[in-house]
Amino acid sequence: MVTIKEVAKKANVAVSTASYALNGIKKVSPETKEKVVQAARELNYRKNGFASDLKRNSTKTLALILSDLSGPFYSELIRGVQDVATDHGYDLIACSAIGGENSTAAKFLTEHRVDGCIVLAHNITDEMLKNVAHHNFPIILLDREIEVDSTVHVRVNNKKGGFKATEYLIQNGHTDIAFVSGPSNSYDNKMRFAGYQEALQAYNIELQNKWIVSGNFTREGGESAANILAAQDQVPTAIFFANDEMAVGGMEAFQKRGISIPNDISIIGFDDILEAKYVYPKLTTIRQPKYEMGASATHIIFQMLKNEEVNPTFELHTDLIIRESVKKL
Amino acid sequence: MVTIKEVAKKANVAVSTASYALNGIKKVSPETKEKVVQAARELNYRKNGFASDLKRNSTKTLALILSDLSGPFYSELIRGVQDVATDHGYDLIACSAIGGENSTAAKFLTEHRVDGCIVLAHNITDEMLKNVAHHNFPIILLDREIEVDSTVHVRVNNKKGGFKATEYLIQNGHTDIAFVSGPSNSYDNKMRFAGYQEALQAYNIELQNKWIVSGNFTREGGESAANILAAQDQVPTAIFFANDEMAVGGMEAFQKRGISIPNDISIIGFDDILEAKYVYPKLTTIRQPKYEMGASATHIIFQMLKNEEVNPTFELHTDLIIRESVKKL
DNA sequence: ATGAAAGCGCTAACAC
DNA sequence: GTGTTAGCGCTTTCAT
Fold this sequence. Notes:
Two copies of one chain form a homodimer. With about 325 residues, chain A is α/β, with parallel strands linked by helices. Chain A is built from twelve helices and twelve strands. Chains A, B: It comes from Gracilibacillus salitolerans. Chains A, B: This is Substrate-binding domain-containing protein.
């Protein structure tokens, strides 16, 4: 590997001068600079980023920690992160938390390899986060329940969103409303369910346990939930799927059985994924401001990096997106 | 920041001993090891990954360079890369090539921040690749045209795939076959088109220029291509969309116009994206072995890292996936 | 404007 | 088994 030393030698200058020249620091004369740059080019010199980061004690890069690099995840959110990072002249890398303690994510979280992290992964333990959180190592948690010191949370008001979804169904004349839930360890799911409960209660509708079925946030889960619901002797007139993925699967399962959406059953989802407006009928849902989540999280990182005081939690709100999957009774 | 020096001091040992203990190197006695680990824990010591990488001159991490972190991309492919990297005890990070010369990708490509790269991005120039390629810095290029020294290519036989798609249409009795192309600078597109041409020629069917329309590889492009085709006085009986994304858009556009697939027009795509089997009718297409592409690319990196001789190009083949969007005439 | 040299935090060769 | 120390490649202070 060719080092700056060799470049300096070839250009007949000291390493310090070479460093200045290569980094565009003004105090070096145009001619010397040219000499150095030329030598570097001839030797095909590539700086060693680590050495320089080590010395500077800053990496100018942020890590985005995902459950799994191969998705699925919200691309809008990532775009939000990316845009803000770029605006600040920072680089962004994404890494996977598969493997927990031994994951790439853990390596970046613990080994000072980045200046800050945005965590969008549930397979990284609270424990680990706690150990790593540090006043000058900003960590932003997306959609997480726990409060970890020196950590900030950005989340959507899932409960209010769940309420809105359920209320919209009620306002359309529905009272027999099922809830298809995500995994029980999901904070999002828990809150959406809480919103569902609250809305039923607010309108004096009794919650029916037989209509609470689990779908694991996956398309297949949605299908099987729909099948379970359809097989009961009393079928609900509307279903609130705790995410769109399940809703899409559920719609398909119903249609396979000859049950028409929204004529026979109304459906509302949560998230507003890209597909929501491409399915038939177009899915009515609760939109999460995904881009804003990513952008806010990243903004907060930079505030923290500047040692500004920030709130420990940051909450965004949801919107009801009315499309075609809910019928007025 | 607490360094290994402080840990050593607290544990009353030399830094080397601390280093050995922390890295699980056997030559240190259990008691000393315990002392060190304990001290590290108490001080909340986190190693500086750069310092250690710098010293070891190896990062044990690979970079996956994508056009844009926020997708879209083939998750199957990434899974292939991820699996193989993990098997070898390597970490994987993904980074974006947005910004070209100034992108994060460029930083990782040029600054020795990883041990190898897999490039799945068209916004990184051949020029840059050429400058960076080095016999002990493996770079694998996916779906690229150019031959760059010290670089290996993994690609799918797009031409043969294009041939297969077209031939299947012909074997189903079609002779009026349109081609909806991707961007003209795409190597994939070019080769798929070549396969289309070759098949027509092989079966003595004349190529009709009015039936070659551009769709830019996007869903919207597919829609507008379908509309253009539908508006002509002579409409083809079958269409080969150069990717599934466009095919899905095209199907939708036709259906909006009351044209039935496959009764009025047969459609075949390319890629076999996830959605292909969810649309109605299910899309007949040419499958790319995406997982295998990722896995092979990564395997090759490790071969190169071990200084084994590897072929400069590695070609995978496609499969015809017959579903419901092509009718026998 | 340029150079000499210290030192970032770590690993590993070497000495004991 | 443990300690001393050189040095990875770079930036930056200080002297000139």
